[in-house]
Amino acid sequence: MNYLFDTLTRYGTDFPREFWDTLWRQLLYPIFMVLKSKSEMSKALNHEEISVWLSTTMIQALRNMISLFTHFFENLEYMLDRFLDLLALCICQENDTLARIGSNCLQQLILQNVTKFTPAHWDQIVGAFVDLFTRTEATSLFSAAMSSTNGSSRSPSRPPLPETTSSDAAAQSPDNALGINGIDSTTPSSVSPDPTTPRGDTPRTRANTTTTLGSLNSQNTDAELESFAAPTTPSQTIPVTAARRRFFNQIITKCVLQLLMIETVSELFNVDSVYSSIPSHNLLRLMSLLKKSYTFAKKFNENRELRTRLFREGFMRQPPNLLKQESGSASVYVSILLRMFSDKGDERRASRSETEKALIPLCEDIVASYISLDEDTQQRNIQTWRPVVVDVLEGVTGFDGDDFAKFTPTFAPLAVGLLRRDMGASPELQRTLQGFWARVTEVGLGISVAGDMLGGRRGSEAPSPTRLRSNREARRETLVGGGGGGAMGGKR
User: Fold this and answer.
1) Which residues contact 294 (CB under 8 A, 6 or more apart)?
2) Band of pLDDT at residue 242, cut at 50, 70 and 90
3) CA-CA distances (angstroms) from residue 441 to 149, 344, 401, 435, 447?
4) How many Cβ atoms are within 10 Å of 446's Cβ, its own excluded?
5) Measuring CA to CA, which residue among 384, 415, 416, 375 is closest to residue 397?
């Protein structure tokens, strides 16, 4: 393989397009054909020698493909869609190593060529993200419970099959209609013996997958957990068949991959060159994917009846939720849009009205939802959402005078509602609220607050967008990139 890519790099400058097409079709793409077959992937993951090849040689081949594309960008840029499809194939795998490597290579493809991309290239890249977010959206969560909301029941012997996108349908059999590659839904030996976790290749994968849906429970008291308890009467217990367990595991895999996509967007747009190069309309299109992910997770988290049914039917050993997806997508969404709104460049100012329409309503919804959380039963939710609320308030406080005055009627009542919270438990939120009210007195009343009243910062000094962005990025690490515990805090 090393000789192959060394030879291509040495002589590729003279290759005509027709020959590159032949190389792709007959030599390069076939290296990764095993990823397209769920039966072959099942054999690979259960065969030690092939599994080692997947995690070593094939991964190196994928990295060499990215290097080859970068080296011959002018010759190969017409193949961008093929490279993006290959990376999507790697990302949408149940295997943790392959999915992570696919995500990393996607980032490297963008980072190494970011200054060369044209608007047409960005259309293709964002289109690839649209496809990835769609394929990893766990829509089957809402049809996974055998009892519908009106009390009717489906047969427990065959789980309902979710809808698939047209791009997935051709490659997937009815037994694996989730669009996740590498899942053999017909091999009993592939089922994980632990009903709380999907089949995976490492204990770390299984542990972090469980965290995706279950460890951040929306209700966190003994009384609340009791209300989720599985029925004790034997006649009421619903057996979890092997087929149904595989179905549940596929759904959980999608949830994990959705978090991986949120993390990928977060890491990419922390890089200034990526943020400054992508056209605004494409960046807003990307933000709409995060908003959809947030809305989806919030809808599921608020459906207590569905979550209770899933818990009682053995979906997981603890009440499932998508709290990390909901908070993580909102955090990245708010961070990027606040940066766009404060950006003075011509490209961003031209789309400022669209940015405002996307940003302000969701910020208002986030703070209002946080205020409504119950101090006694939802402490975990409060702790998870607090950094996002601080991001919102800091961002609004950092607006220019005219913009701050414009949105004060929207956020001042919410800031009053936040005063109900125990500030002793959240000094950062307390400081942020102080800064907000200092701006209110300055902009609305023309009164500056003394610096010693705000911990050394004068009231006339609004926090700079650069400093606010730095603070938001540091806090967002705890939501979508922090170490340990979460499905996005390390290896899946």
Assistant:
1) 325, 326, 329, 330, 333, 362
2) confident
3) 50, 26, 12, 10, 5
4) 7
5) 415
Helices (H), 191-322: 203-213, 222-227, 242-268, 272-277, 280-302, 304-312
Are 217 and 225 in contact by the 8 Å Cβ rule? The answer is yes
In this prediction the pTM is 0.79
For the chain, the domains span: 2-116, 140-398+463-481
Q: Which residues touch 282 (CB under 8 Å, ≥6 apart)?
A: 119, 122, 123, 125, 126
Q: Which residue has the tokens 């999915």?
A: 99
Contacts of 138 by beta carbon, 8 Å cutoff, 6+ apart: 251, 252, 254, 255, 258
Note whether 221 and 376 are within 8 A (CB): yes
Nearest-5° Cα angle at 129, 123 to 130: 85
Residue 45: what pLDDT?
64
Give percent of the chain with pLDDT exceeding 90: 56
Q: What is the pLDDT of residues 275-333, one digit of tens each?
A: 999 999 999 999 999 999 999 999 999 999 999 999 988 888 888 999 999 999 999 99
